Amino acid sequence: MALLRLLAAIALSAALAVPATAGAAERAAQPLAAAADVALRYWGATPCGGRITVTAKRTVVAGLDADSDAWVTFASPLGANNLAAPAGSYTDCAIAFARWRWPTASSMRQDWSILCATMVHEWGHLLGRPHDSTPGSVMVPVFTDHSSVPPSCRSSAAGLRGARHRRSGTDESAAQALARFMT
After folding, report:
1. How many CA atoms lie within 13 A of 100 on its CB side?
2. How many structural domains compose the chain?
3. Helix, strand, coil % (nearest 5) of the chain?
4. Residue 59: its pLDDT value, please?
5. Phi, psi (rounded to 5 degrees) for 172
6. What is the dihedral of CA 79, 84, 85, 88, to 10 degrees?
7. What does pTM read for this prediction?
8. DSSP character for 183?
9. DSSP secondary structure letters along 113-132
10. Domain CATH code at residue 78
11. How confident is the model at residue 24 (pLDDT cuts 50, 70, 90)?
């Protein structure tokens, strides 16, 4: 159920972040939903009780490096974005993807492995994981090559097909689930 709430939040956010046509919103939401599904499988946990707003095509916020490609925001008892707080206490959770890096759904699909790794990385922050400079860690502060990209993110075909999950005994792609929430 938490995954369905998350997919609905991604669909709503994508609808708000792209032109107001259902086709454009669905196209933008599909790579993000597929990446969120990979992140869920990678970590084996859904942060923030499944209440995460995922937005695309965002302007980099003040205080971040201009070349930041994504970031998280959340409230906690210790203050905004404070990873020292227990991850279970995070509320108002959001993952934002920068416009400069992924301006279109097509660019998300073309850069699937890094988009996916970035979702897994930001998901990790919402689970309370800090940056980790260990070579090959998905939590490195900056992806400088593909060594930190999880194997599940390496296939561009996975991003194009959409991640699969079970619903009512039948397979349904993340994009199909999003389409149900958007109608």
Report:
1. 9
2. 1
3. 50, 15, 35
4. 93
5. -145, 135
6. 130
7. 0.75
8. -
9. HHHHHHHHHHHHHHTT----
10. 3.40.390
11. low
